[in-house]
Amino acid sequence: MTDVIPTPSIPRVPVAGGGTFPVHRIYCVGRNFADHAREMGASVPDAAERGRPMFFSKPADAIVVGHDDVIPYPPSTSDLHHEVELVVAIGTDAPEGVLPIDQAQALVYGYAVGLDLTRRDLQAAAKQKGHPWDAAKGFDASAPISEIVHAAEVGDLAALNLSLEINGEVRQQSLLDQMIWNVPEILHELSRLWRLRAGDLVFMGTPSGVAALKPGDRFSARLENVGERHGVIAG
Fold first, then answer.
1. Which of 10, 88, 91, 139 has the highest local Cβ count within 10 Å?
2. For residue 186, what pLDDT is reported?
3. CB contact at 8 A, 85 and 204
4. Which CATH code for domain 20-226?
5. Where would one find the signal peptide in this protein (predicted)?
6. Closest CA to 109 of 51, 23, 38
7. Phi-psi category of 178—alpha, beta or left, where left has phi over 0 and alpha has psi -120 to 50?
8. pLDDT mean by block of 10 residues, the chain; 235 residues
9. Kind of pairing, strands 26-30 and 54-58?
């Protein structure tokens, strides 16, 4: 069968050491750091009563790769916020059914650091009306990401520091052991709703300190032992 339009290109993320990672889907975890949940006005259950995590998604072509590049300020907002996150890259299709936690790590190809950019004013309006967040989270260029580093080169995630500087000032910082749900737990929970595939990216949630970005702001996202992602918001 002949395509009636040109075939869209597949979004790809560079991999440290060479090659690229073709992106299938982007899943995102909401409120995965207790301090961020509190600053957003949400209640935080204790470890014994976590319930299940909250998920949303972005289109695969929301990723922006490159280094020190310009990120467009999106339309229809006056309150663009930064959220720095660990990103998990899935390298193997999950088996059918719910993925056991003790098998989840085997699916991980590698890790990156990324930003979940958010039109906060649109999100607040959607929350107030009980509407979906798609317009607030899934817009063009809403997922800047670093190159992916193979999991074997990263080591223990829990001890790593995640941080974001805006114009040289630290805005967000946390060790990854502060995540409410760790990587295997999140993959297990995602598998209850979707079958994970090679090429999926999972943005794992952000610590406290989210705030507005202005045109001309320079950002530097860092994840210890993984990498950095620099850029500037279009002026």
1. 88
2. 98
3. yes
4. 3.90.850.10
5. none
6. 23
7. alpha
8. 93 98 97 72 58 94 92 98 98 97 98 98 96 96 98 94 98 95 97 98 96 98 96 93
9. antiparallel
Contact 70, 232 (CB under 8 A): yes
Q: What DSSP line would sit under 181-223, residue for residue?
A: S-HHHHHHHHTTTS---TT-EEE----S---B--TT-EEEEEE
* 174-180-182-184 Cα dihedral, nearest 10 degrees: -160
Tokens of 133: 């967040």
Residue 161 confidence (pLDDT): 97
The amino acid sitting at 194 is: W
Are the C-beta atoms of 20 and 14 separated by less than 8 Å? Answer: yes
Length of the chain: 235
Per-residue model confidence (pLDDT) at position 67: 83
In this predicted structure, what is the pLDDT of residue 34? 78
Residue pair 74/141 in contact by the 8 Å Cβ criterion: yes
The predicted pLDDT at position 42 comes to 58
* 145 backbone dihedrals φ, ψ, rounded to 5°: -145, 150
At residue 168, the pLDDT reads 98
